[in-house]
Design goal:
The protein has 330 residues and is an alpha+beta fold. The protein contains 11 helices and 9 strands. It binds phenylalanine. The site of phenylalanine has 11 residues, from strand 8 and strand 9.
Length: 330
């Protein structure tokens, strides 16, 4: 028995321990035999041997259980060590996703205006003639409708050509003052290097009592916004025409590629056109039932901003979903 006790103490593996257990408790093991031999004894002697045997049996049960626990814990440690994952290792199989450059640009634009206390409004993509055109001082057969080649449905509904109908809906459902932007997708029948049939706009509208909103306010916020987007650029306002604003302007920034020297991107003018804006035409306020108010509005194409910020030459490549292109924007 002493030998077995020593063997347990020295034992290094669970397999080895099992062999010892069989020697002690197995069918042909020590105790099976010892208890069988009890039959040959009698009386007081039998009692004594039996009691010693029981004690020894208990002792070995404990010894084996304790050793088993120690060995098992060692085994767990070993497995843990072998299977340990180095979380700091660089993964070769899993790639992290990223925002599409158009959405990333959209977010940057929205961030600026939210910081300037503008609310975000949304509206339907399928619009009616009133919200997309009529209320914006674009009556039927007005030549300016040609500026926006429209997708029509058979029932006279249409895919919105700009996000301006959201401004109309907001004015119809809220009282001034209004200070809002409307980001979203818009649709026009156009397809070339710089046009896709679906693109994104962010338009803005500010309306308050007469005298509280001026062209100067518009000029300040757009200049500040364009510096937020493009850094240290010169901003220029050029007289233009939109049916829903009067006066109207188009806004240019000094070319961010040649710093105004003249290059291919700016068609050697030194300027890049980036925005349309103006003071809201009184006919628009009439259409939504607003009185004694003034306001300004502006609109921009998000894809154009993304193209300029990332120097993407062909707008269409933004919508092809080619990972070789998109992965460069991670
Ligand atoms: N709605 C115009 C467009 O889509 C953009 C614009 C908005 C221009 C507001 C001026 C003022 O072309």
């Amino acid at each position: 028995m002493e030998k077995l006790e020593k063997a347990i103490a020295k034992c290094h593996s669970l397999d080895e321990l099992e062999k010892i257990r069989l020697l002690v408790f197995g069918k042909k093991g020590y105790f099976t035999e010892a208890f069988a031999n009890l039959k040959t004894l009698q009386g007081e002697e039998k009692k004594q041997v039996a009691s010693t045997l029981n004690e020894t049996k208990e002792k070995f049960t404990t010894l084996l259980a304790e050793k088993k626990e120690v060995l098992e814990r060692g085994k767990i440690d070993e497995v843990m060590q072998k299977d340990a994952v180095d979380v700091a290792l660089f993964s070769t199989t899993l790639g992290a996703g990223a925002l599409h450059p158009v959405m990333e640009t959209m977010n940057k634009i929205i961030d600026y205006f939210v910081g300037m206390n503008f609310s975000i409004e949304e509206g339907p993509l399928v619009e009616d003639d009133f919200h997309n055109f009529e209320a914006l001082n674009l009556p039927k057969h007005h030549p300016a409708r040609d500026m926006q080649d429209t997708f029509y449905f058979d029932d006279g509904m249409l895919l919105r050509t700009h996000t301006s109908p959201v401004q109309v809906r907001t004015m119809l459902s809220q009282k001034p003052p209004i200070r809002m932007i409307c980001p979203g997708s818009v649709f026009r029948r156009d397809f070339d290097l710089t046009h896709t049939p679906m693109f994104h706009q962010v338009e803005g509208l500010v309306v308050d009592e007469v005298g509280k909103v001026s062209f100067a306010n518009l000029k300040f916020i757009l200049e500040d916004f364009l510096k937020h987007m493009f850094g240290d650029v010169t901003v220029r306002f050029r007289p233009s025409f939109f049916p829903f604003t009067e006066p109207s302007a188009e806004v240019d920034i000094s070319c961010i590629f040649c710093k105004g020297e003249g290059c291919r991107v700016c068609s050697h003018t030194g300027w890049l056109e980036v925005l349309g804006c103006g003071v809201v035409d009184s006919n628009v306020f009439k259409a939504v039932g607003y009185e004694n108010v003034s306001g300004y509005a502006f609109g921009l194409g998000v894809e154009r901003f993304a193209m300029l910020l990332h120097q993407i030459p062909d707008l269409r490549s933004l919508f092809e979903g080619d990972l070789r292109l998109l992965e460069q924007f991670r």
